[in-house]
From TrEMBL:
<protein>
    <submittedName>
        <fullName>PEP-CTERM motif protein</fullName>
    </submittedName>
</protein>
<dbReference type="Pfam" id="PF07589">
    <property type="entry name" value="PEP-CTERM"/>
</dbReference>
<keyword id="KW-0812">Transmembrane</keyword>
<feature type="transmembrane region" description="Helical">
    <location>
        <begin position="21"/>
        <end position="39"/>
    </location>
</feature>
<keyword id="KW-1133">Transmembrane helix</keyword>
<dbReference type="InterPro" id="IPR011050">
    <property type="entry name" value="Pectin_lyase_fold/virulence"/>
</dbReference>
<dbReference type="InterPro" id="IPR013424">
    <property type="entry name" value="Ice-binding_C"/>
</dbReference>
<feature type="domain" description="Ice-binding protein C-terminal">
    <location>
        <begin position="728"/>
        <end position="751"/>
    </location>
</feature>
<keyword id="KW-0472">Membrane</keyword>
Length: 752
């Protein structure tokens, strides 16, 4: 009878050992061994190869007699050869030194002394374990079991001091032939092909006491085997692009480590589909990818998840993981949102880099601060929605990298970016405020990089993004979805030569800002400029087809480029709306101008031809080099100050329903486009108005302007008309000559 005892070495996981009946007293300094008295001792029989050199059954290879064919008598010791077994044999134990191989068509059943291996060795025969406690003690290397494993006993894989000693099960059937339980201790590794561990009938367990179960070169099916963690925890490892699956449940008191293989592709995964109850927390490392199906995927509620060395949380479903703390260690981690929503109510801490990918949403609801100091990268249209202080820093700085459409969003509250700089990849990223909430704390934030920054909101909200930093990004700015971009300086919107595109968003002037070279594009969703009692000056080209709204909050928008191409509609929101333009529409503006408050102001300082029919009831005023004309209409008033011009066309009339005021110095020489080549006739320059113009120059035939070449022109009422005639202007003493005849004048006007 064998005697079984246990040796405990402080500082390492418990290591199970067996002792012969001869070892009743063992002097130990590290612990105490209590041994029951046994009645039978095992004799070691050592291979010497003196017979035929290959055959297990040949006693000449064993110094006279082969190991006894029973489970109690002998331990067979191999010293490096390849030994062939062609029959079914029993033996109490097998000892292998490095390089030993037991091969052949036979089957070896191992008794209570189990297997001892000291290096890379192979069992190519079938092997049977029926003992309740069969140990495989490894002092190094890999024990490859390429034959089929049978039996219903228990197998314990012990680490006896080497680094990652491994038992590798190669035989791959649809269902395992071994129905007993496995225990893996210390640094021991149980590596398995796809179905080597599968039990379709269920009932099996794998206990990890610091040990590892690993897939090898294929997917690994753990169906029918639950995993139990001792207080020393254990590791489940998938191999490169291979998966560990099977609906297994994990229980126990230890920490579960999920590992991949950093040296290869990390596309493999650990499918945590069971209702797991382990209490020691979860560690995802070395490119491991943990697929989360529910909060219970990660054990007991509230236990932590630690990521390191590229470990990945993969959202297989929409999951709220409650108050679990997330620790990102120095090697970094990743959330793959996979078009799903993962809600994290616990605190994120650590200093490693955190990547968020996958076109879904990571929702951070804990309002903590200064606990996570690593860089955050949001990529591939993934969204991070953060609570007020969830990623702010009390001291120091770290980056938020946005690329390929990655989005950082406030989550139903104000959102503090203190201590965080933003770096834009070439494909750019998104900052989004939520509802009536603000993104702030950006006084020290620098936004840099080559990508476009998209500022987004949600429709009909009053939130804002406060761009207080001196930003250097070069990819331009896009303002969409009701976003309100607060500009504090020209640098608020990045490099001075980059453009701003607004498509359903707002520009809010928090300071007087001159954009010296920046182009603005207003797309179909339109733009609202909220000048906030400030002046926003744009010297770049202003273009686009969307509606431009000038908010009712004082201040003014000044468009000073003579080549502006903007052709969209313009809306004045109230009495305090003011727009100053040098040009529109590339010279001819066909958009509609609206606004019902007479106090709103539309100032023109360059040439603008109004070709659209507008309902604007405010004041249209010309200053400096201003010139107006066109075939359109406005319903408000029109004022031409001294030195401003009217653009004459034989075929165009500008209709003005309100009051028209012309400076008393206005004369024919202030008409652009008239000459001695203009055909004789009466032209209506400004129609519909009831204003009279008796006080301007060249009013009436007596004050006609000489166009040269026998032509003259003068103004008359009837709105504002211009009469061009080849008839000589009579001198005061020659009025009698008018009796000689008259010249029929043709009234030329576009409208009938």
């Amino acid at each position: 009878m064998e005697i079984v005892g246990f040796l405990k070495i402080e500082g390492k996981a418990p290591v199970r050992k067996r002792f012969s009946a001869l070892a009743l007293f063992v002097p130990l300094t590290l612990g105490v061994v209590l041994l029951p008295v046994g009645l039978h001792a095992q004799t070691t029989v050592t291979w010497d190869g003196a017979g035929d050199g290959t055959t297990y059954e040949d006693g000449g290879n064993w110094g006279g007699s082969a190991p006894a064919d029973d489970l109690t008598t002998n331990i067979a010791e191999f010293t490096g050869p390849t030994v062939d077994l062609s029959s079914t044999r029993q033996v109490n134990g097998l000892n292998f030194s490095s390089g030993s191989t037991l091969s052949g068509s036979g089957n070896i059943e191992v008794g209570s002394s189990g297997i001892v291996a000291g290096g890379d060795s192979t069992i190519g025969t079938g092997v049977t374990f029926n003992q309740s406690n069969s140990d495989i003690n490894l002092s190094g290397g890999t024990l490859d079991i390429t034959g089929q494993v049978f039996g219903s006993g228990d197998i314990t894989i012990n680490d006896t001091g080497a680094s990652d000693p491994t038992v590798h099960l190669h035989f791959n059937t649809n269902d395992a032939s071994f129905t007993g339980d496995y225990t893996v201790i210390g640094d021991g590794v149980l590596r398995s092909e796809r179905h080597s561990l599968r039990l379709s009938a269920g009932g099996g367990t794998i206990t990890l006491d610091g040990g590892t179960v690993s897939a090898d070169g294929d997917h690994l099916d753990l169906s029918g085997r639950d995993v139990v963690l001792t207080s020393n925890g254990g590791t489940l490892q998938h191999a490169h692009a291979r998966n560990v699956f099977g609906g297994y449940a994990v229980s126990g008191a230890g920490e579960l480590t999920i590992s991949g293989e950093l040296s290869t592709s990390t596309a493999g995964r650990m499918q945590l589909q069971g209702t797991n109850t382990y209490t020691g927390g979860t560690r995802i490392v070395n490119g491991g990818q943990a697929w989360a199906y529910s909060d219970a995927s990660f054990g007991a509620a509230g236990t932590s998840i630690t990521m390191d060395s590229g470990g990945t949380y993969y959202a297989a479903n929409n999951v709220d993981i409650g108050t679990r703390a997330i620790i990102v260690e120095s090697g970094g981690g990743r959330f793959n949102t996979n078009n799903k929503t993962t809600t994290v109510g616990g605190v994120i801490s650590g200093s490693g880099a955190l990547d968020v990918v996958g076109s879904g949403t990571l929702l951070l609801t804990a309002d903590s601060t200064a606990t996570y100091t690593g860089d955050i990268s949001i990529d591939g249209n993934a969204v991070v929605k953060a609570a007020r202080n969830s990623i702010a820093l009390d001291s120091g700085s770290a980056n938020i990298n946005l690329s390929n459409g990655g989005e950082l969003s406030a989550n139903a509250d104000h959102f503090d970016l203190t201590g965080r700089n933003i770096v834009l990849g070439e494909a750019g990223g998104v900052l989004r405020h939520a509802h009536a909430r603000n993104i702030y704390g950006m006084g020290g934030t620098v936004i840099s990089g080559a990508g476009e920054l998209t500022l987004a909101g949600s429709s009909s909200d009053a939130g804002r993004i406060q761009l207080q930093g001196t930003n250097t990004y070069t990819g331009g700015t896009r303002i969409i979805d009701g976003a309100q971009a607060w500009a504090y300086s020209e640098a608020s919107l990045g490099d001075v030569n980059s453009s701003v595109t607004i498509d359903g968003g707002d520009y809010f002037a928090n300071s007087n800002v001159i954009h010296s070279a920046r182009d603005f594009i207003i797309e179909s969703g339109g733009a609202e400029f909220k000048n906030n009692d400030k002046t926003t000056t744009i010297d770049g080209v202003f273009s686009g087809t969307g509606t431009l709204t000038i908010a009712d909050n004082s201040g003014q928008l000044r468009l000073r480029n003579a080549g502006n191409l903007f052709s969209g509609d313009i809306e004045f929101a109230g009495a305090d709306s003011k727009l100053v333009v040098k040009s529109l529409g590339g010279g001819s503006y066909g958009g509609s101008i609206s606004g019902i408050d007479p106090g709103s102001i539309f100032d023109i300082t360059g040439t603008v031809l109004l070709e659209g029919d507008s309902t604007f009831l405010g004041q249209t005023r010309l200053f400096g080099d201003g010139a107006i004309g066109g075939n359109g209409s406005i319903d408000g008033s029109l004022l031409l100050n001294a030195g401003t011009k009217f653009v004459f066309s034989e075929t165009s009339t500008l209709d003005v329903a309100g009051t028209v005021t012309l400076d008393n110095t206005f004369g024919v020489d202030d008409l652009v486009g008239i000459s001695s080549g203009t055909a004789d006739g009466t032209y209506t320059l400004i129609g519909e108005t009831a204003s009279v113009f008796d006080n301007i120059e060249n009013f009436g035939v007596a004050n006609a302007f000489d166009l040269g070449s026998g032509k003259s022109a003068y103004f008359q009422n009837g709105s504002l008309q211009l009469v061009v005639s080849a008839v000589a202007v009579p001198e005061p003493g020659s009025l009698a000559m008018l009796g000689l005849g008259c010249v029929a004048l043709v009234v030329r006007r576009r409208r009938f």
